[in-house]
Design brief:
The protein is of the alpha+beta class and 106 residues long. It has one domain: Ubiquitin-like (UB roll), CATH 3.10.20. It has three helices and five strands, in the order ββαβααββ. A five-stranded mixed beta sheet has the order 2-1-5-3-4. A hairpin with a 5-residue loop joins strand 1 and strand 2. The protein starts with a strand and ends in a 6-residue tail after the last strand. It binds FE2/S2 (inorganic) cluster. FE2/S2 (inorganic) cluster (FES) binds next to loops.
């Protein structure tokens, strides 16, 4: 699936990533700036926080308890569309996914 990352500076980076990869991994492997992912994807750092475009947000499975808890402590403003990108696994229906990178992760 193709993911469009809208960066802090307003530019968009589009990357193609394989099914099964997380949005966080796709960002890191393609050097998308603004997603730190300090814990490497084990849902303990919250520095992979992103805003999911509303059109796609509804297609995602609900966050589990651990993700919900971590979302309480994100560095940037938490919004209704906030998610941890390491917990979003790519599936075919997410092709065209638009992800907004938050202002800060620290
Ligand atoms: Fe650490 Fe997602 S990479 S919580």
């Amino acid at each position: 699936p193709t993911i469009h990352f809208v960066l802090k500076d307003g530019n968009t980076r589009s990357v193609d990533a394989p099914i099964g990869q997380s949005v966080m991994e796709a960002a890191i492997l393609n050097n998308v700036r603004g997603i730190d992912a300090e814990c490497g994807g084990c849902a303990s750092c919250a520095t992979c926080h992103v805003y999911v475009d509303p059109a796609y947000f509804e297609r995602l499975p609900e966050p589990d308890d651990m993700e919900r808890e971590l979302l309480e402590g994100v560095a940037a403003e938490r919004r209704p569309t906030s998610r941890l990108s390491c917990q979003i696994a790519l599936v075919a229906e997410l092709d065209g996914l638009v992800i907004h990178v938050p202002a800060t992760q620290a």
